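fold description:
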Amino acid sequence: MIIETKSTVKAFGGTQGVYSHSSTSTGTEMTFSAFVPAHTRGETLPVLWYLSGLTCTHANVTEKGEFRAACAEHKIIFIAPDTSPRGDNVPDDPEEKYDFGFGAGHYVDATEAPWSEHYKMRSYIEAELPSLISEQFSMADMTRQSITGHSMGGHGALTIGLRNPDRFKSISAFAPIVSPINCPWGQKALSGYLGSDPSAWRDYDACALIADGARHDHILVDQGTDDSFLENELKTELLVAACDKAGVKAEIRMQNGYDHSYYFISSFMADHIAWHARHLG
């Protein structure tokens, strides 16, 4: 695989880079950012994946997430992919809304035309990009990986983590969509990408995965109480109920007064990174 270096800057002793490559999963050019802390020759570092939310690219968390100091302290590589394929030949939401199409891949492998040709974000995140990181970043220890994300990306982190418990040492999320089957954002996305049969959606719903037997020992969720999307889209209480019923000991914290923004995410980012560091060893 060949990657193009778009930019690199020194930060907290390490390197913050932005890279692009031609993706076989999406059939498009894909961009991601990676922060690699300072390290000695031959030293290997664990990897924390960050999946972004609706409307975002790799740039939002890279510019506003305030993760580098904590990643430098704990010596964790931080990788932030884009949220969807993009390009002139890639279909976008015909309604021109923000919750489907560009910036809204929902981390699924679409099965419905015309989305199925390019919208393969599950394969991209679960297989292609990790393979590229393993090949191109020799300091990345792919035996030590964790995953986190925000909103739609929180949904992605939870579902990808629950489907791959042996790969990810820990899973966290900021204000995640916990049950796409039961909210407008999710119903639009899953029906559009996967078709009208809700049974095909369960692999992309954290609550359904837990109900169907998926398990992980280390799950952390932070949700702001003043988040305007909490009641209709995020529905944190459904994850609490699913975990309680299944006996999953997730740590789900309601953070008083916080909203859905990067002010919220950046307030707890260092805490999440330190928590992942304990599980990454």
User: Anything to note?
Assistant: The mean pLDDT is 98.
